Automatic annotation (TrEMBL):
Residues 7-117 form the STAS domain. It holds the Pfam family STAS. Belongs to the anti-sigma-factor antagonist family. This is Anti-sigma factor antagonist. Coiled coil: none annotated. One of its GO terms (molecular function) is anti-sigma factor antagonist activity. SUPFAM superfamilies: SpoIIaa-like (SSF52091).
Amino acid sequence: MTSNPLFVVDREAVDGNLILRAAGEIDGDTVRLLDDAAAKAIESASALVVVDLTDVTFIGSTGLNELLAVTEDCRARDLTLVIAAPPGTVARRIVEISGLWDHLAVADSVSEAVSRRREHRP
């Protein structure tokens, strides 16, 4: 677990997939924690990285930029990144209004994110 008083990231490995569960605020003061956790996940994942934003209460522009950067890092390593952001959550709304919906793979839940990857395996 990586944490600061405003932000926590837990990491879980499931069938070669890495799930990062974030909670709290992703802003200029906390984005480094997400960046570090994502870098470690990318290093050890074999197919899929899921960033679960269900419990995120705020995402600033640095957080959105980080999600885009992690997406690109995953693509460069032939991994898939899916953001889990259920309808009605702060993260889902921010992704929708920021214009990033078309640039990020977003699922309603972690289980949907994992099943999406299973559907796309050759």
